[in-house]
Design goal:
By secondary structure, the protein is mainly α. The chain has one domain: DksA, coiled-coil domain (Four Helix Bundle (Hemerythrin (Met), subunit A), Up-down Bundle). 60% of the residues lie in helices and 0% in strands. The protein has 4 helices and no strands. Helix 1 runs antiparallel to helix 2. The two termini are 30 Å apart.
Length: 104
């Protein structure tokens, strides 16, 4: 998808990408140091690893031109949501949508 987000400029994307990349590098370094010291509990380590993966996924969506668009419905994710949760991959409507039981 190569559609321009209605609320995010190319300059905004470059800034967001830089912040996400810096955060991913810093978190990865902390993870490596914590693992080397044996200081991270398993649950904390897994949560931190998932956050780093979410950061990397957001960077990939920027690079692919998909950042800011909902992975579920394809609509634009509100800039306010992306400001609050830069790794958001779904709009609020889709996140809040209850799961439908299988087979219905």
């Amino acid at each position: 998808m190569s559609i321009q987000h209605p609320e995010i400029t190319s300059a905004d994307l470059a800034e967001i990408r830089g912040r996400l990349e810096a955060e991913a590098q810093a978190r990865s370094q902390l993870l490596a140091e914590g693992d080397a010291d044996g200081e991270l509990e398993e649950g904390l380590r897994l949560t931190a690893e998932q956050f780093v993966a979410d950061l990397r996924d957001a960077i990939e969506r920027i690079d692919d031109g998909r950042y800011g668009f909902c992975e579920a419905c394809g609509g634009a994710i509100a800039a306010a949501r992306l400001e609050a949760v830069p790794t958001a991959a779904q709009c609020v409507s889709c996140v809040d949508r209850p799961l439908r039981p299988l087979g219905r």
